[in-house]
Amino acid sequence: MRFGSFMDRALEEARGAGARGEVPVGAVLVGREGDVIAAAGNRTREQSDPTAHAEMLVIRAAAKRLGSERLTGCDLYVTLEPCAMCAAAIAAARIGRLYYGAADPKSGGVAHGARVFSHPQAHHVPEVYDGIGAGEAADLLRAFFADRR
Amino acid sequence: MRFGSFMDRALEEARGAGARGEVPVGAVLVGREGDVIAAAGNRTREQSDPTAHAEMLVIRAAAKRLGSERLTGCDLYVTLEPCAMCAAAIAAARIGRLYYGAADPKSGGVAHGARVFSHPQAHHVPEVYDGIGAGEAADLLRAFFADRR
């Protein structure tokens, strides 16, 4: 299935992030034609930037590449439930569909905590599909944090 | 009062953003010694970046300047209530105090909507002071949107 291969690419980015010592989360931004516009893993440590989550990096890269602050009709694949920051950026960018892997009860902002898309103020709400590649995404995170303890 | 002059600086940045055709919101990031580390107005249009809110720009610039993804003990002054994206970035950056001007019932994520700091999941909650320079901040926004109608 198509969405499976995009999530595979996101998982690759997550592994790359882990290898760099970053929390292993990866994201892929797919354009209206089904083309990968941007792919990234977390780089908060490397860039000394608390906003450099994988989702933010692909949104920024794709918006720059398309020359528009709106990514209407584009899809985002990410290995972990986005936090509130990333969820709100997804809404601001008018992303059409959000596919994510593992749930994040601790820091997620879609199905947990701030539940950014679940308020009357939400200007734009993407279609949300969760659980895709969740097992592998969660394993990567578990192994990463186990190594650090 | 000290916080008044930092908010004046944020209002200056907001006016500058409006003059560039951006939504007139400005922010200032103040370090532990009371020094301005970064100041910015919105640049979402200019940079084709939906994440380029004033708050995000000063957080990113300050984190880069200090070489750390955490801005512990720093204060953020912004002319408008932060949205959910910016509020979550403020938490991620461990900013100590948030001073904001006008309330934003439509897009705010602190006292409205997602109320990012009001969930058990919030890892870090800054002290929040609202209403500082609110009249001038709101006037700037009203004039900007009136011109566009």
CATH superfamily heading of chain A:
Cytidine Deaminase, domain 2
What is the subunit organization of this protein?
A: homodimer
Q: Going across the major beta sheet of chain A, what is the strand order?
A: 2-1-3-4-5
Estimated share of beta-strand residues of chain A: 15-25%
Number of helices of chain A: 4
Q: Which tags fit this structure?
A:
homodimer; 149 residues; alpha/beta; Cytidine Deaminase, domain 2; 5-stranded mixed beta sheet; 4 helices; 17% strand; Cytidine_deaminase-like (chains A, B); hydrolase (chains A, B); tRNA-specific adenosine deaminase (chains A, B); zinc (chains A, B)
Task: Provide structural commentary.
The structure is a homodimer of 149-residue chains. The first copy, chain A, is α/β, with parallel strands linked by helices. Chain A has a single domain, classed as Cytidine Deaminase, domain 2, CATH 3.40.140.10. Chain A has four helices and five strands; from the N terminus they run αββαβαββα. Chain A has helices at 2-19, 54-66, 84-92, 134-148; strands spanning 26-30, 36-41, 75-80, 97-102, 127-129. Chain A has a five-stranded mixed beta sheet with strand order 2-1-3-4-5. The longest helix of chain A is centred in the N-terminal third of the chain and has 18 residues, at 2-19. The radius of gyration of chain A is 14 Å and the shape is globular. The model of chain A has no long low-confidence stretch (mean pLDDT 95). At the A-B interface, α2 and α3 of A face α2 and α3 of B.
